[in-house]
Structures are given as structure tokens and as C-alpha cells.
Amino acid sequence: MARYFDKPTKRLALQRSGGKCEADGPLYNMDEGQRCGVNLGNGVEFDHYILWANSRDSSLSNCRAVCPRCHAYKTRTHDTPKAAKTVRQRDKNDG
Known about the structure:
Layout: H1 7-17, E1 45-48, H2 52-55, E2 63-66, H3 68-94
Antiparallel strand pairs: 1-2
């Protein structure tokens, strides 16, 4: 299980995006159905839509080509707190 996306997956995600940020909805600080759509020519990052730590999924269906601003927002407000909660729950279950 790879934690990172391989090059073919990244290429397909970028192709699917049409060169525009795929971030959309509340996870990325937008209204439901709203898409960022910023041009990815100035920078692209590949985001696990569902945390890799929780999904173990690095497939195209879990990959989003997003701008650095959207990726940073989701990481800061959703991914990091959720990962910390997962660790706390695991530690609690382990005693």
C-alpha cells in the first residue's frame, strides 16, 4: 500500500481536472457544490480526499489535483485534527 500517488495516477488526476483546482465543497472552505477552479499552472498538489491513514487508498478515485491554498486549508482544518483523533482513539483502545 503506497501512501503517495504514483505518477500515472497524478497524470490522470491532472488530466481529469482540466488544469483547474478540483477542490470543492465544505472540506475546502467552499459552499456545497462550489469548486475552486483556480489554474493549476502556478502549482499543483495531490490530495487524498479521504485521509490515507483512514482509507489506505491511493487510487485515482481518492486523488484530487488541487491548488496549494486549498490543500493547506483542508490539511490544517480537517486532515490534521482527524488524524490526531484517530491516534487518540487507537491509543485508548490499546490501553
